[in-house]
Amino acid sequence: MPVQPSDATGGGLARTPSGVLVPAGIDPFHRTLHHVAPSGLIGQTSQTSGMKRLEAISGKTVGAENLWMGQTHVAASTASGNHHHGASETAIYVVSGHPAFVFLDVEGDEPVEHRIQTSPGDYIFVPPFVPHREENPDPETEAVVVIARTTQEAIVVNLDGLDWSEVRIR
């Protein structure tokens, strides 16, 4: 006898207009894939000086509930402002250029500004609340990265410096 699918809460099934049985707790909007072409990216999102963020996957664009994903562009010879992303974990994939990610390493005897130099294909993980900035030292080429966050909105808290004195955990 075939196993019947059930939703995450162990509830029943619902029949779609085409006759397919799906978990009852999944609404029609969340039963389909959503395509966002480059022309569909949204520039009206939280920004930090020296960079441009474009929203691709979010509540506004596809109805995401727990994820934000987009692109960040850092112009040639530019450094972003210092910032953090609140309680959100951030994953970064370097598409083009050689951006550097700068943070204050506070785990030694003295705080030390630390730079992670990247290349296309590299990944960076930014834990919640960590003050950092992006820099693009290349004098001619824009750096482009893809960002994914564990919060549905693009949380950005701009800071004066890389130290933790302005970080407020709520």
UniProtKB/TrEMBL annotation:
* Cupin type-2 domain boundaries: 73-146
The portions of this protein that span the membrane are none
- Top-rank taxon of the source lineage equals Bacteria
The record's Pfam families line, in alphabetical order, gives: Cupin_2 (PF07883)
This chain belongs to the protein called RmlC-like cupin family protein
Native species: Nonomuraea angiospora
